[in-house]
Design a protein that fits this description.
The chain is mainly alpha-helical. The chain has 21 helices and four strands. α7 runs antiparallel to α9 and α8 packs across α17. The longest helix has about 35 residues.
Length: about 475
């Protein structure tokens, strides 16, 4: 069923990823910049074109990179492309699809009134849940109740933005289940509960953002027409489709299984994939299909469920994952790659916090975390076996690993593409009629003035 070492493996043996990363020039990331600018500018200046043709735009930038990459590197390039789609993109989309499908079958209806106090409570619950069921799971579970409770309000964009800040990113900083970088650290020997050492940073960031949100939401609330609030006051609070929590637990269990169980590997077109990961993907698909089979259509209709948001993410990230290959290869090459100046300049915990965070704002935060994690091990324990080096790192260099972890998790909130649920939240909110800010609007109106100031404070206090 799965072929033996295939079309990519032989050539890939000659040119490894790190070698490609050392060869590729910095300008090879231009297609990645192109797709980011397309996501940022087309919805602003050509919204109708973007709405109808964004899959083609994504495919265009993917081909702009892939064609010359394949021409010059041939089989080795084919291996890199196969690897990122088999190991990264397909599991990424399966996880998003499963969480999107299952959460879409949980309908919270009733007297959630969208007041500042209610909204803060919902954001706090989501922030706490993010470390238990992941930032994506918490985001997909709570986005519709938050949208519904604020449906009567005119001013609600800021609520969606703080939702992304807290639930889709910062809340996931306490366990390996919370965000992929921390899960990757767990796979490389960081104890499961070590990340609780980030509690001071997570609490500091969450409290400041919740207080800031409450002040901002109270200001907007005073400007609202309260007549729309009365319609929700007599409806009892209830949850329909609660059986989907079983499927949600199955998804979390599948993710844990893939990290804890080693049952070998299989070879897919020359790319080695963990058998446990394939089992996990199969379980996630089963949970999503079970949700579709056992959840009444009326519940999804009440949630205004549609496949539009997940399709948008699938199309756009198919292009992003292709064009991100050179940047990730350069990071993997370390000091030998075109991004080596970043690796060489990192010395203090503050440097690790900002370097891992800045790159995680635009690149996949999991390999970014691993790059600086490996860099720290190489700097402090050169030549030592990874298991022994990690055992010493988590005791002797706590501020460094904490900085890498916090930077990779927290700063995913800086842009819509910094973490997977960010774009999902944006897409679902827009489908519900919320006029979300553009890519640059989000950055210049919200993340830069609010988050960057917060991260400076975190640097001064903790790093």
């Amino acid at each position: 069923m799965i072929p033996a070492p295939g079309f990519a493996s032989a050539a890939a043996a000659n040119i490894k990823s790190a070698d490609i990363g050392a060869i590729l020039p910095l300008w090879s990331v231009l297609p990645f910049v192109g797709i980011l600018l397309s996501i940022a500018l087309f919805p602003l200046f050509a919204p109708k074109f973007w709405h109808h043709h964004f899959p083609k735009v994504s495919a265009f930038w993917a081909l702009v990179f892939a064609v010359p990459f394949l021409f010059f590197f041939k089989g080795a390039a084919l291996y890199q492309i196969a690897h990122i789609y088999i190991v990264d993109y397909v599991p990424f989309i399966i996880l998003l699809w499963a969480l999107f499908t299952v959460s879409g079958g949980i309908y919270v209806k009733g007297a959630l009134k969208g007041t500042p106090a209610v909204n803060v409570a919902l954001l706090l619950i989501g922030t706490l849940l993010a470390s238990l069921i992941g930032t994506t799971g918490a985001s997909m579970l709570l986005i519709r109740p938050v949208l519904r409770s604020n449906a009567w309000r005119k001013y609600k964009v800021h609520t969606m933005v703080f939702f992304i800040f807290l639930i889709s990113n910062i809340g996931g900083g306490l366990t390996p289940l919370g965000d992929p970088p921390l899960f990757l650290g767990f796979l490389h020997g960081v104890p499961f509960f070590w990340t609780l050492k980030l509690l001071p940073q997570v609490a500091f960031a969450a409290v400041i953002l919740l207080v800031l949100y409450f002040i901002l939401d109270s200001f907007y609330y005073r400007k609202e027409d309260k007549s729309g609030l009365q319609a929700t006051e007599t409806e009892p609070l209830q949850i329909q489709g609660a059986h989907n929590f079983i499927f949600l637990a199955g998804i979390v269990g599948g993710v844990l299984f893939s990290g804890l169980v080693n049952i070998g590997e299989v070879n897919i077109f020359g790319v080695h994939q963990s058998t446990a990961n394939l089992v996990k993907d199969g379980l996630l698909i089963a949970m999503g299909l079970a949700s579709l089979a056992f959840t009444k259509s009326e519940i999804r209709k009440g949630n205004e469920f549609s496949w539009g948001p997940i399709l948008e993410v699938a199309y756009l990230f198919a292009g992003i994952f292709m064009t991100i290959i050179p940047a990730l290869a350069m990071l993997k090459a370390g000091a030998d790659g075109a991004l080596g100046f970043v690796i060489k300049s990192v010395e203090t915990p503050a440097h690790y916090f900002w370097a891992s965070g800045a790159l995680s704002s635009f690149l996949d935060n999991a390999p970014t975390y691993l790059t600086f994690f490996s860099s720290a091990i190489g700097k402090f324990y050169p030549g030592m076996a990874e298991a022994e080096a990690v055992a010493r790192l988590i005791v002797e260099k706590i501020p460094y690993l904490a900085a890498i972890s916090a930077g990779s998790v927290f700063m995913g909130a800086n842009t819509y593409i910094g973490n997977a649920p960010n774009f999902m939240v944006k897409s679902i909110a827009e489908e519900a009629g919320v006029a979300m800010p553009s890519f640059f609007g989000y950055m210049f109106k919200y993340s830069i003035p609010m988050l960057i100031v917060l991260f400076i404070l975190i640097t001064l206090v903790f790093f």
